[in-house]
Amino acid sequence: YNSDAICYTFVETDREAVATAVQRVAGMLQRPDQLDKVEQYRRREARKKASVEARLKAAIQSQLDGVRTGLSQLHNALNDVKDIQRSLIDVNKDWRQSINTIENLKDVKDAVVQHSQLAAAVENLKNIFSVPEIVRETQDLTEQGELLQAHRKLMDLECSRDDLMYEQYRMDSKNTHDMNLIHIYFGDMQKLSEELAKQLWMVVQRSLVTVRRDPTLLVSVVRIIEREEKIDRRMLDRKKQTGFIPPGRPKKWKEKMFAILDRTVTTRIEGTQADTRESDKMWLVRHLEIIRKYVLDDLLVTKNLMVQCFPPHYDIFKKLLSMYHQALSTRMQDLASEDLEANEIVSLLTWVLNTYKSTEMMGNSELAPEVDVNSLNPLISQNAVDQLLSKYMSTLTSNIIGWLRKALETDKKDWIKETEPEADQDGYYQTTLPAIVFQMFEQNLQVAAQISEDLKTKVLLLCLQQMNSFLTRYKEGAQLYKEEHLKNRQHPQCYVQYMIAVINNCQTFKESIISLKRKYLKNEMEEGTSSSHANIDVILDIIAKEGCSSLLDEVFMDLEPHLNELMTKKWLIGSNAVDTICVTVEDYFNDFARIKKPYKKKMTVEAHRRVVVEYIKAIMLKRISFKNADERKEGAERMAKEADQFRFLFKKLAAGSGGDTEGLCDIIVAIAEVIKLTDPSLLYLEVSTLVSKYPDIRDDHIAALLTVRGDASRDMKQTIIETLDQGSSQPNPNYVPIFKEITVPTLSVQKRLK
């Protein structure tokens, strides 16, 4: 079956080869001109065939050589295995023949063991008899501080005891009686070891002091510990071989030394707290500063002095650095878990996040390069930091709310004083409120900046948010101040001056907020700050606008009797009402000069507008109806003159603030022209001109104006109004409507007014 398969495979291979050859020949002879190259193709293929056959023969020959070598090596290995088998048979035969001989040597073996034990006893005999004396000498040396000599004698005693115990163990490991006997005899030696250890640990505890005063003593302690470490290693190696280890081994004094150093460091860190919150409000600042100083001094002493007293493989500086870091971490976590006040949280976080790695402590140049601050782990976890920050922000929020309330209440008490408020260097009235508020914000931002940029931004945002709430209360307080004043205008005595100060404070608040943001905000587009700032500006503008309105109300309450004289018979005959109005306004504006420029400008324009509105209202009230042309001429000229008075007054008042007051008084002049007109046939034209200039004028305004003229019949009024209604006017885009604020009373209202 296998031969058939092989034959079938060969046949298939031949077929594939023939098919491939036919395909290649067909590819070569595709054109007639290629028939001339048949012989060339045949020679090339023959060369290729010869080359392939040569490589194939070489490969087969190499395989055959390898197989031949392998067979030769297998044959040699077989011969070696047979030789080893014969040798093992001979060894087994010799071993069986020597069993009886070994059993006969058992007595010799026991004698050798006994001889070894006796030799050890003889060798240590002198030490055994002198144990009490050596113990006393060792104790004296320990008390005298001769630690190296004391340890040398202790080592001799331990060596004698350990050798005797080892020989006893070899002879009879189960004989506990003899072992106990040796142990009891050398019992004082264990006390000596413990006493010596106490001396060593005292030196280790005071190593930072000892290394300055007597470094030799510290070196002696380290040498003793190194000796004990070597003995421990030797005893442990012997235990692996024999199973015996002397009592008290391994002592692990090196491990104990580092444990004592660790406890010493922890005690030193915890022992720096000298005060409590009850005795000193700055207890934490003082505590942290002492820790900083102690740790830096200790690490510098370790680097410069202690390192020289310890072998390099102790890596004493790195280990002490780790101990201090761990002790500090534990202490900081303990402090973080206490119920800290806001200023204490700031002190702790500033120390942990900044001071610890600064040049004042771990980043000190004298500690480099051994201390890499970038490789130091955080003293407290991020979670603990976040909790402290959250608690700080919560406490700070409550504090700021309380501070702002107190500041506002204090400021409101100042408003009712009988003395004028203080003025700044430019003479503008102000109170201390903005300075107090922003001094508080500034202090908290400076504190937050010491901790992190993120906290600084959060505190700034908090200040702006609380400023929103504060200004709402400030606005309510100013409104209540005005209402209380209206109940008795004689009180408070300095109402106008303090209302001016409130207005000026709004501008100061704006400037202070911009200054704070510029100083403490890197990115002007920080999320939340822009919207808060915009809201604050809106509220401040409202407070200032309401304050200005309150002051103007105060002015117009004084002007009311004089405004009521306008457009009356008394006015026509000769009245100084407008003169009094101008004097009163100017007098008030002498005080208003203490208002800062942006608000003063708006206030001047508003005062001008309200005076003109009140004047036009007086016309529309129809208090007078001119009887003839002479009265109309006299009244119109008086109106034009008074318009010039108003124009001059407000131009003078606006000179310092830049307000535009030219157009308002022209309305009075335009109305005067309508009244002055002598030819009734031109009345429609004059009125239409007035309407085209001031398109918000209504029919009732025109009717009232014609009524004041006194010569227009009802039909004429109706005709003029209907004709004007049919027409269309193109208002001036810069015109600010004024007539929409002016109402014309009906006849019943007029009777009631009379």
UniProtKB/TrEMBL annotation:
Task: Tell me which InterPro entries the record gives.
Answer: EXOC3/Sec6, EXOC3/Sec6_C
Instruction: Tell me where it resides.
Output: Cell projection, Growth cone; Cytoplasm, Perinuclear region; Golgi apparatus; Midbody
- Record's signal peptide: none
Q: Quick one: a GO biological-process term for this protein?
A: exocytosis
Q: Which GO terms describe its molecular function?
A: SNARE binding
Q: Is Transmembrane helix there in the keyword field?
A: no
UniProt keyword annotation of Protein transport present: yes
Gene3D superfamilies hit by this protein: 1.10.357.50, Exocyst complex component Sec6, C-terminal domain
Naming one, the record's GO cellular component terms include: exocyst
What are the UniProt keywords, alphabetically?
Answer: Acetylation, Cell projection, Cytoplasm, Exocytosis, Golgi apparatus, Protein transport, Transport
What is its quaternary makeup?
A: The exocyst complex is composed of EXOC1, EXOC2, EXOC3, EXOC4, EXOC5, EXOC6, EXOC7 and EXOC8. Interacts with EXOC3L1. Interacts with BIRC6/bruce. Interacts with MYRIP. Interacts with SLC6A9.
**Family label:** Belongs to the SEC6 family.
Instruction: Relate the protein's function as given in its record.
Output: Component of the exocyst complex involved in the docking of exocytic vesicles with fusion sites on the plasma membrane.
Full protein name: Exocyst complex component 3
